[in-house]
Amino acid sequence: MKIAPLLVAAAITPLVACTSVDEVINEQATIQPNEARIDFFANRGEAFDNQREFVKLMCFNKRPNGALILRDVEEGEHVLFVRASVINSDLPFGNEREAIVRLEANLEGGKRYSLNQTRDNLNMKVWLQETDTGVPVSEVVSTRVEYPQYVGDLRLQQCKEGTV
Length: 164
Fold this sequence. Notes:
- This protein is α+β, with helices and mostly antiparallel strands and 164 residues long.
- Helix content is 21%, strand content 42%.
- Residues 15-21 have low confidence and may be disordered.
């Protein structure tokens, strides 16, 4: 009978899976004392609002990177290039607007930081803040989100100038 081993496997799998998930969560929650963690900003809109807003690091390993994930960086002085975007899913063409912002910050090891923004129509303010206290650790940069334009190698040059 092949059903008995299948039932045993089905009964044991949740026990093993829960242990693995706890270990992964604890590992992700731990920030090394010589590193700082930078979190992205994501506002996926209300139930009937079709606008989504994101603020994320534009670079990783000094190259453009579009990933929407947490980044652990070395403590100390940093030049960060950040991509802020507004996506409107109601519009059929040209539904995304963006702005690239340069932030400078001195990050302490063992702390978590969050990118944040406020927006009034196309005008946006972007900054990096300490997650626990909400205190800004960079200047608040005013910008305007616009349709993306072809910029050649500019993004690569910006990433090479940055520290992440």
